[in-house]
Amino acid sequence: MADDPVLLITGASTGIGAATARHAAEAGYRLVLSARSEEKLTALAEELGGSDRAIAVPCDVTEWADQEALVGQALETFGRIDVAFANAGFGGPRGFTEGTPEEWKAMVLTNVYGAALTIRATHDALVETKGHLLLTSSLAGRRALPGSLYSATKFAVTAMGEAARLDFNDTGVRVTLIEPGMVDTPFFENLEFEDPLQPEDIARAVLFAVSQPAYVDVNEILVRPTSQPH
Hints:
Low-confidence stretches: none
CATH architecture: 3-Layer(aba) Sandwich
Number of strands: 7
Shape: globular
CATH class: Alpha Beta
Number of helices: 6
Radius of gyration: 17 Å
Helix content: 40-55%
Largest sheet: 7 strands, parallel
Strand order of the largest sheet: 3-2-1-4-5-6-7
């Protein structure tokens, strides 16, 4: 339907982003799917109904021009953005002597600067629809991990969520931080215990937040596996 709500997702090609896209499609959303992997994005868009229901827009979230183009394509195709999910991000090995400075720079730019650019790019469209902004933080954005620059980037995203909520106050736009514990996705190479969360578990949390009445703003959802000790 031409008036069905529109959900834009960064980091949509795998894991939490792809699972959220599938759940949102079942709930009646039209999808704007973004990531750097064009092949996976295109396959997912076709799976979810093709150009009438889902479009694939390759985007490097650290590039402002890409983010502007992403939002422009969303508005040109569907005419609105009701929900924006700033989900793109990646991690690295723990320890301040691990990884490379280049990997650190890319992680900070993607996880922090990229999320901020998504907020900036979708701001006016969300105000227009009195929409909903979601950001993927992490349990690691609530509890520092030893030697983890990734954890520091997610603390920044946690602060960004509250800063955005305050900035959007009185516009009707809602803001939700999604804070997963250990999830069985390509993000984690080595799972530390049995029965981790699945991407679909986080997708249900996203849909729970966006399905609330307009006067209800679920600001944070922290989801751990039952077996996760900390």
